[in-house]
Amino acid sequence: MSAYLIADVRVVNRQKFDLARAPIRAFIEAHGGVYLAHGQEPEVVQGGWHPQRMMLVEFSARENVDAMFATREFGEMRDELVNMAMFDIVVADGIAASRYVREYPSPVYAVSDMRIVNRAAFEDYRVQIHSAMREHQGRYLVLTDEPTTMAGNWTPPHLTIMEFPDRGVAMAAYTASRYQEARERGNNAAMIDMVLLAGGQAAA
Prior knowledge:
7 helices, five-stranded antiparallel beta sheet, 34% strand, alpha+beta
């Protein structure tokens, strides 16, 4: 099953970081990573999460991600990046492989960091949200209580990633009355931070 690497990146030396981007990408792709989205400032949909840059990469199996992090090359690259950028990186097991990245020119990914405060209410909210999203071609790639922090201090207690064909479809889903009704019911279930990442050409 697919696994997903999500990085929240804060650049501290733009010149050095820009020089390092191509080697980083080559290294990740050499270990089977497929870039779904990266580089742009994410669009905030809900909550107070304002990441400067994000990166979303898909691997065909969790073993590939773990093997990449275990390499000597990764250790050397991590040491070099200390003076260029700060990385918060988590890895999550997927429940589906990305599809729209291969079918549409500009897919969009909704990444949600959730803190559940009422599990029973949250489960009801999740069912309602899932149904509302499917009406707009939204599909879950990640839905987990167990993401793994690989670097930095980001430790989301519940993480979801949803894929849409494009931004227009994603925003139609999030502004639909059915979603808004479910969101109102979910206010007492969880604290949710959500951002949209542009894929396709934006991830090239």
